[in-house]
Amino acid sequence: MSQDGPSHNGESDGRQEELRQEIDRLDAEVQRLINQRAARVLEIARIKESNGGPFYRPEREAQILARVAERNEGPFPDEDMVRIFREVMSSCLALERRLRIAFLGPEASFTHTAVQVHFGHAVEEHPVAAIAEVFREVEAGTADYGVVPVENSTEGVVNATLDQLMRTSLQICGEVALRVEHHLMSHAGSIGAIQRLYVHPQTRAQCREWLHAHLDGVEWVEVPSNAEAARRASQEPESAAVAGAAAAELYELPILAAGIEDEPDNTTRFVVVGEEGAGVSGNDKTSIVISAPNRPGSLFQVLQPFSRAGVNLTKIVSRPARSSLWEYVFFLDLEGHREEPTVQKALEGVTEGGAAVKVLGSYPRAR
Length: 367
What we know:
With about 375 residues, the protein is of the alpha/beta class. The protein contains twelve helices and 15 strands. The strands form three sheets. Strands 1, 2, 3, 4, 5 and 11 form a six-stranded mixed β-sheet that branches. A five-stranded mixed β-sheet has the order 8-7-9-6-10. Strands 13-14-12-15 form a four-stranded antiparallel β-sheet, sandwiched between helices.
């Protein structure tokens, strides 16, 4: 045995103990600073209560999280550091008042995950069965905000959400872009032992090629949500479900095949709706719906003001108007906030051309 072996081990043990003591000291300092931050939040809450200011400021939270990522020096990745601050901010806001968030449920759905990504976990989560119910809950004041899916990179827009946005007075005040990974989960033990598959129609469309290649001979049963698929599969040993990791964890289902979506960058975009819009954050998006006269060149006249004003359009989708047959409305997303001069100029140009414009909301762009 080397003469300096025990001495070396003793030095290592001593250094390890020093580091542990330093971690304990840092933990105490972090805890003190978090409580100090919370105290400042409560001071601001009292000021807002006295002057009638808005309770929740999505643009302010977006600015804070952007700065968190910008100043991060590691070793934590930016995404993890932002997630930690998101939860600190969520808990601080809950000291003022715990937000109630309606969302397209049930628990462990991708929309549920979007709620937690945007608001953190210190909120009251209120799952409902349909997109229209989310809007009704917020309109009735029984929920502070609602979260609904609006489009998927593979399957396109969610028409039920667009229809509700056309009729509601609520404003879009936030968005979440969520990378969607679908997994095959079951107690069957192997793919070959599966006899029944529970799957949501849109999920089935997003995993079409994989499912036909591996489960073409089993019974397929459509269900209203991925979480419901997982719930049913958890009760039947020879059945399987396609859902996300949160559903697998909730229903304790082993994942037999991970990431079975056909498009590796499959992403769903969700919007947050509320009674009030968001202020300017500096990195914003605006959503509008336009109704233009049905005549030659009307779409060109609608789009031309944006080009003249230098406003970049990021999406345009047409939907049948409910008012008359073969009439259409156009949903547009554009870069910038409705209060910015270039966006105002473009919108004025559209209305001067005879089109009707409804601003659905200006809000911080998803990270």
